[in-house]
TrEMBL record:
EC number(s) stated in the UniProt entry for this protein: 2.7.4.14
Organism this protein belongs to: Prorocentrum cordatum
Record: residues binding a ribonucleoside 5'-phosphate: R154, K176, I177, V178, G203, F204, P205, R206, R251, R262
Protein name as catalogued: UMP-CMP kinase
Upper taxonomic lineage: Eukaryota, Sar, Alveolata, Dinophyceae, Prorocentrales
Enzyme class: transferase
Note accompanying the cofactor annotation: Binds 1 Mg(2+) ion per monomer.
Family according to the record: Belongs to the adenylate kinase family. UMP-CMP kinase subfamily.
Binding site for CMP: N210
Length: 312
């Protein structure tokens, strides 16, 4: 059964690529339907063939490549395919093909896979200019959203209707660390709400446990991590910036003792993350010492480079 379904499906796509309307009609049962990403064709095989011929006419360069085939105990084959529209556009599609006992297609449902969101983790010492650069990216590039892990946690804590908010409040009061699964869940919630396709995740991951939590809860199927946007700056310069900011920010942690403690924590917990992603050639290092406008020129180039990455 499994081998027969594979042969039938391989033949089907071979004929499909030949753009043979009569040939494709002959592979469908008399009462057959095809649901593709544009329309529903049926309820006869002539309707199906006409609909497919319409696709060939609209997109004459279209071609299908089989990635993998999965069969079931019923007369159904699930085909993971690449639909090559043209030199610049390839769609990932899943076709669910149901056959009758004679080996003819009764129904074919096509589902276009949505591209995975692209993610850049934004890291750097306190005062390195991450927030300034993220704001510029969002202003300049319309597909990007800036999501702060800290802001997500604060917003959830302040939501009176959130069970997670109550739990977060209790955990923080007890001086414990919020479980990474909750933080990742809130990041994903913010990503969906933004309706964007590219994300700057700021303030996360903070340690290697966060990296593991992201992999376990999001993984490669949930997002394409394009790397780490890392703003590098010297400790003495960061101290100057934060002390200057503290004069107007009203933040209680913008004082010399807190600044040095934060920097020490950053070095001990965040640098191992940089090292891990460097080993994969996924760190984009930016010198955060020059004026913001100069740093922005480098940042722009990196964002364009990430946008140009092919989907995975």
């Amino acid at each position: 059964m499994a081998e027969r379904l594979r042969e039938l499906t391989t033949t089907y796509f071979k004929v499909w690529n030949s753009h043979d309307q009569a040939g494709i009609e002959a592979l469908h049962s008399e009462k057959s339907t095809l649901k593709d990403w544009n329309a529903e064709h049926g309820p006869t095989r002539a309707d199906v063939a006409k609909g497919i011929a319409g696709i060939w006419k609209d997109v004459p360069t279209i071609k299908i490549e089989i990635v993998d085939l999965f069969t079931s105990v019923t007369n159904t084959c699930v085909a993971s395919i690449r639909v090559i529209v043209d030199a610049a556009t390839t769609l990932k599609v899943t076709d669910v093909i149901e056959y009758d006992d004679a080996g003819l297609v009764v129904r074919l449902d096509a589902y276009v896979a949505q591209p995975k969101p692209k993610v850049l983790f934004v890291l750097g010492g306190p005062g390195a200019g991450k927030g300034t650069q993220c704001a510029k990216i969002v202003e300049e590039f319309s597909d990007w959203a800036h999501i702060s892990a800290g802001d997500c946690l604060r917003a959830e804590r302040q939501d009176p209707n959130s069970k997670d908010g109550e739990l977060i409040e209790q955990i923080i009061k007890e001086g414990k660390i919020v479980p990474v699964a909750i933080t990742v869940k809130l990041l994903q919630k913010a990503m969906v709400a933004s309706k964007k396709s590219c994300f700057l995740i700021d303030g996360f991951p903070r340690n290697l446990d966060n990296v593991t939590g992201w992999k376990e809860n999001v993984g490669e199927l949930g997002a394409q991590v394009c790397g780490v946007l890392y703003y590098e700056a010297k400790e003495d310069e960061l101290e100057k910036r934060l002390l200057s900011r503290g004069e107007t920010s009203g933040r209680s942690d913008d004082n010399i003792d807190s600044i040095r403690k934060r920097f020490k924590t950053y070095i001990s917990e965040t640098m191992p993350i940089i090292d891990e992603y460097k080993a994969k050639n996924l760190v984009y290092t930016v010198d955060g010492m020059p004026p913001a406008d100069e740093v922005w020129k480098v940042t722009q180039g990196i964002v364009r480079q990430v946008e140009a990455m092919p989907p995975m």
